């Protein structure tokens, strides 16, 4: 039976685009399949903030950050917590990825036309010991153009290859099966869905209008994870994180449904680390949603007071921006699935950023003028819009009014005004000195020693109850689904492995479907800026390896 292509790539997100571009450049004929319409080319990466993890970059050195490969690897190991036999390949992928991030990655991306915002962000600060989780130094490099800026060069390469006849793009093709001939997986079958003109991210029709069957020498699975399928998220939820939340927001569109992972598993691929996942604890309901239960993550500076549902401060070191997984673990012990930020107008103006390309039009639109406008007084436009319209925001001139507003947001009045006042006043008394026994206050002073934070991300220390800093603001925070950290086990050539460790001949995997490499390159936790980077790295490896195998 004749082949339809050299390689079939399943999934037109970032990893699939990178793999396809590499295959086409190597002279291979590729069919790229995706169940969504053309408008969704680039997948989840389009919606991202565009942060990329780099080590000892020129941007870091200009900000007086001293980083090194050894420090980054120490941070990765302390964060990942590899502790399973199945972590053999994830750990090897992690070593290779840190080598890439400290070596070729930046120059390779610049060759694609990607540039970076000059201020390096400091995500996932950890807050424990040197050998524990978190980034010891800022490493979050924001792409000029955010997520669309990351997708753009690879989409351009794929489009150019399509014009040359090297790539065939088939949207509205939903894969339902993989099958083999003579021990090699070479056939992809599925359903053709009805044409759809819905905008990017909107739920598209699942009406089936036909079927397809295609054959190639190799298949690359780059179909993403499970974050849009809350049933699968709850099914995979680990006992160590307690009972799954009754209510979650979605940080990804509904088509991130995880169905292709099951199909690849049925074909013989080994799925590992499915209980490892990366969900955010600072989710807010989007007042102008694109997909169902659409949530946006607040990227906070260090100054907001973080309270549980009953108004008690979260334990050390669970401060804003420090330890996502540790915070999630704690929240699930409280008996409630929401928490609160309490802050001031001064804090929201300096410290609140919103994740997502659409929430950062200045960076996404590459407007230097608009970026400089962030230095003006007042909160950034998208943040101010959430403050005015967001269902999770309470704004009040006094603490009694704030507490009444907070209690109106929940089924029962859980916040006691007197207790909250004691908590805030105790914290405020610590603000009179540049030193403190309150470790969050110490962290605020420490953050302002980093030039990037002082300029853009950390408000000048002040009392929360200072009338001159007001009004007071409370934000109800929700669990926001986002990434699967496990997936198809792969070797360093991105070949999908069987349960016995042998390759599933003809099948490769990249991106979130492969746990961003190996079946879980992050272990239990992410250092941030490593999801897009994992798609880039694993997509490049899968494309190049499949090209060599089909020569």
TrEMBL record:
**Keywords for the protein's UniProt record, in alphabetical order:** Flavoprotein, Oxidoreductase
| Gene3D superfamilies xrefs | FAD/NAD(P)-binding domain, Succinate dehydrogenase/fumarate reductase flavoprotein, catalytic domain
- Look up the signal peptide feature and give its range: none
Annotated FAD-dependent oxidoreductase 2 FAD-binding domain residues: 6-532
Q: Which InterPro entries match?
A: FAD-dep_OxRdtase_2_FAD-bd (IPR003953), FAD/NAD-bd_sf (IPR036188), KsdD_DH (IPR014614), Succ_DH/fumarate_Rdtase_cat_sf (IPR027477)
SUPFAM superfamilies from the UniProt entry: FAD/NAD(P)-binding domain (SSF51905)
Which Pfam families does the protein's record reference?
Answer: FAD_binding_2
The name this protein carries in UniProt is FAD-binding dehydrogenase
Q: What does the record give as the organism's lineage?
A: Bacteria, Bacillati, Actinomycetota, Actinomycetes, Kitasatosporales
